Structures are given as C-alpha cells and as structure tokens.
Amino acid sequence: MTSLPQDKLDALTKRFDSIEAALSAGPSAEQFVRLSKEYAELEPIVRPIQTYRKMLSELAAAEELAASGDREMAQMAEAEIEELGPRIEAAVREIRVLLLPRDAADERSVILEVRGGTGGDEAALFAGDLLRMYQRYADLMGWKFTLMEESPGEMGGYKEVVANISGKGVYAKLKFESGVHRVQRVPATESQGRIHTSAATVAVLPEVEDIDIEIKAEDIRIDTMRSSGAGGQHVNTTDSAVRITHLPTGIVVTASQKSQHQNRATAMKVLQARLFEEQRHARDSARSEARKEQVGSGDRSERIRTYNFPQGRVTDHRINLTLYKLDKVIAGEALGELVDALITENQAAQLAAMEGIS
Asked: Which of 170, 232, 253, 258 is deepest in the core (most CB within 10 A)?
C-alpha cells in the first residue's frame, strides 16, 4: 500500500480542528471571514483524511479480531479486511492528489480569447463555434459568461472575440484549453464538397485584481478611434473605441463597444490579465511548458486538438484521447470529458514527478 506523509496529515488535521474551535468560540467579524475562508480551503482535504484514518482504525480492529482464535469471528473479520483494502487504497489515491501543490490561480475567473487562425472565413466560423461551445459549457457549470469584445468575420463567426467567464474554479477547469484547435470539415463556403482544414487559437487567462498587477500611467499609451461596424445605423460615428499599448512589453489591447468609458475599463482588464499571465510564465516557465499554455502562431501543425466532422470525432493530441461524440463536444455538453481527462493526466504527471518517475 502506498504510504502517505503522516506528519503532513497531522498538521492539516490539527490546523482544521483549531479553526473549527475558533469559529465556535465566536470570533470578531474580521476573524470570522478570515477563518471561514481557511476552513473552506482545508475541509475538502481534511474530510477525506478523517475518513481514511477511520478506515485504518477499523482495519486494525479487524486484524486483531482475525488473530483472536475465534473461528467465526475471524471469518467475519477477514471479510471486513478484504472489503477495507480497496477502499483504503482508493482513499490514499484521492488524498495524494489533494496534497499536490495547487495553482494559485485555479479558483479565479478567466478572460477567454478566441481568434480565427489559418483558414480565412472558415477559421472565423470555427472560432464562433468554439466560443459557443465554451458559452454552453459555462452555462452547464453555472458560470456567468459575458462578451467583452468582438471582431466579426465577413462570412460569420469571429476574427477575434474576448469574453469573461466568472465563477468558482473556472481557471482550474479551462486552463488546458489554451492552444491551437484544428477543424476538418466541408466549409459552408465550399461549393465542391471538399474537406478543408482550418484552425483557431484559444487563450485562457486568469482574471486579476488591481492589486495583482500595477500598471503605471507612464507605461501605457491610450488611443481613441472610431469603432468599426457592419454598416448602416449601427456604425459608431464617435471616437468611442479604445486601444491601449503597454510600452514596456508591446502588448496592444483594443475594445470597441458603444461606451468609451466601458471600453477603457474592458481594455485595462484584459491588459492586466495578459501581463499577469506573462509574469506567471516568467516565474515558472517549466510549468507553463508542461501545461502547453502557449498559443503559437495559429498554424495547423501546432494543434492541441482536432475536430473531425466527417468522422464525428474529437482528438486531444496531448493525451491521445479520441471521443466519437463531436456533436456533443462542440455543443459543450461533452466538453467536460476532455477537460476532466486533461486534469487527471496533469495530476498523474505531477505525482510521477514527485516520486521521481520518468
């Protein structure tokens, strides 16, 4: 049976018990908020530890009974030992995963950016499909989905679109979606019925607070310009669109909705998220490479996932997983199967690294 670091389990359990006692003692409002947050963070790991240790006690009692010499009682004890073994092993596996170092950004909301890559109009249409997939998945997860900025494609879909997905643990679920997504299908614009391959890029950035990233006024240039539109009465005739350039990094963010004030706030929010993620990559480049968060150029060859419509399959190339339920994945209904598989694979890689397994 794989062992667990009992000293660490003792420390977690002791801290949890002390917080529970402090909360029962009627702390001040400020202390209550702080303790409640820590309690909520510890409970998901301490409860399985308590269950695990209870099973260990039951196992010890059963083993003692099995050695008592009473034949009937020994048979009952042997049956209990046989039942407890797999349950304890499962508990050990669960706790080992729970003890893995957590990404500090996992609980955050995200900024989702989807851009059409190689493939022209078809790439823009596919970018629209991906956006709807994430929107539906967000709905199923109970998250709030807000469109922040959009640049429509000429035949539909999006050249570029930015959305905010807010809720608990959004980044933990969606962080592995960053990369190049490839589609193989007969485009609506194709009259000869030929299968085309196109691509779109997805970037998932953890949302940040003002305290996370300080942007100095002298480090940015803000330009206003006339919003572009499809024509007619919806074309904005005032300079409401905003473009912010971060001079030290060269990052450029634009927002072109109706309100200049809102555009400025939106562009700053996206800029903060991009700078925050850049800092995270700089601090831990090995982790970012392992998680394959780099989007790349949008070329077909840099894909992380392929959506093959003629065969009705979706393949995630990082974990060699293929699902023959493309319609449900692209509708957001089965996206969770890919998301959960990627999380499990990452956890397995972390465990292997901790144990020195190549």
From this structure: 170
Higher pLDDT, 241 or 297: 241
28 or 301, which is more confident? 28
Which residues, listed in sequence order, are joined to residue 183 by a DSSP beta bridge?
198, 307
Tell me how long the chain is. 358
Specify whether the CB–CB gap between 250 and 190 falls below 8 A.
no
How many whole angstroms separate alpha carbon 269 and alpha carbon 246? 13
> How far apart (Å, rounded) are the C-alpha atoms in residues 357 and 86?
24
172, 106 contact by CB (below 8 A): yes
Which residue stretches of the chain are H helix?
6-24, 29-66, 71-98, 121-141, 170-174, 260-283, 285-290, 326-330, 335-354
Element at 164 (helix H, strand E): strand 158-166
What is the Cα–Cα distance from 322 to 254, expressed in whole angstroms? Answer: 37
Which one is the CATH code of 110-349: 3.30.70.1660, 3.40.190.10, 3.40.50.170, 1.20.120.80? 3.30.70.1660
pLDDT above 90: residue 285: no
